[in-house]
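User: Before I run my own analysis I want an independent prediction to cross-check against. Here's the chain; please return only the structure tokens and, at the end, one sentence I can use as a sanity check.
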Amino acid sequence: MPGPAPKPAHLRQRTNRKPGAAQLEAPTGKTKAPEMPNPDGRVWHPLTVKAWEHAWKSPMAGQWLETDADAIGRLALLWDEFYKKPDADGLKEIRLQSALFGFSPLDRSRLQWEISKADEAEEKTRRRKNPSQQRTGTADPRAILTMVK
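Assistant: Structure tokens:
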């Protein structure tokens, strides 16, 4: 056969993973949502305020840019209109606009965002910083060999 031998299977890289994939960490502290834009001085429905706060406390908020706040503000206007007067057309538009920001599991999958829980994220960080520790948190068993004389 002409050409070089193929790489061993364990050295091959995945080709189905995009370089933009992100691992999102669930927020551990209290994050404050930015002020909700209110261009017409409306009184917000309580569910709109709650949806706004939940959006900005979500792990996805770490991926949003400052310009995204304007678009999420427009989404808040849609939420408010829907909560005050529910209709199918409003719900359709909310679904379309929400998809842009990863609000559903399917949207996060499409954006290649994976949310790790806080405990898992801390464990991964700890293992990355100290690779000599095993999964159980004990020190490397080979370290005892250096103490024995």
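Sanity check: The CA atoms of residues 67 and 105 lie 23 Å apart.
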